[in-house]
Amino acid sequence: PNGVDMERFRPMDKNDAQSYLVKHDSSDLTSNRPIILFMANPNRTSKNVELAKASVELLEDAELKIIHGVDPERVPYYLNAVDVVLLTSRWEGSPNIVKEAMACNRPVVSTNVGDIQWLIGGLQGYYIAKPTREDVADKIQRALGFKESAEGRQRILKLGLDDDSITGQISKIYEDVARG
């Protein structure tokens, strides 16, 4: 898996992140309603934007923001500016957006793809949903009860999914190969 840059992806004040995006990206993520972030190209069939839209439509008091193609340096601000990060993919490997959201201590709702069960490991504020609009909506509603999950960032470190740990593992592989 790719390592997470724990310096870039860190918890920030939600209002500060929103203000930064208004100033630097012309993105207004302020709302009186909770904001659910779908951060993927909606034209990619594998990302299943239809499920994201249908699920949030079932919620009376939430707003879906679909964001893609932004400067990678701004991704941590988007993650911190919202209430829940949503992944409705049909398939994934090891979803970076989930790891990055965890490093920011943002609640996540995801379909059961790739290594998501291993990643979130039953942490509070992180939910695996069946790929139905009803179950995704239910899990979003539950996730909205968490303003942040302090365990997400610690889980990334515990699993060794930070940049430093991954770099060390890759270096060890090269050193082992070089020694023959």
> What is the helix tally?
8
The total count of strands amounts to: 5
Largest sheet: 5 strands, parallel
| Portion of residues within helices | 40-55%
Order of helices and strands: HEHEHEHEHEHHH
Strand content: 5-15%
User: What is the molecular shape?
Assistant: globular
What is the structural class?
alpha/beta
Calculate the terminal CA-CA distance, rounded to whole Å. 25 Å
CA radius of gyration: 16 Å
Strand order of the largest sheet: 2-1-3-4-5
Which regions contain 5 or more consecutive residues with pLDDT less than 50? none
Overview of the molecule:
With 180 residues, the protein is of the alpha/beta class. Helix content is 43%, strand content 11%. The protein contains eight helices and five strands; from the N terminus they run αβαβαβαβαβααα. The protein has helices spanning 14-25, 49-57, 75-80, 96-103, 116-120, 133-143, 150-158, 163-179, and strands spanning 35-38, 63-66, 84-87, 108-111, 126-129. A five-stranded parallel β-sheet has the order 2-1-3-4-5, sandwiched between helices. Helix 4 (96-103) links the parallel strand 3 and strand 4. Helix 2 crosses helix 6 (133-143) and helix 4 packs across helix 7. The longest helix has 17 residues, at 163-179.
Keywords:
about 180 residues; alpha/beta; five-stranded parallel sheet; 5 strands
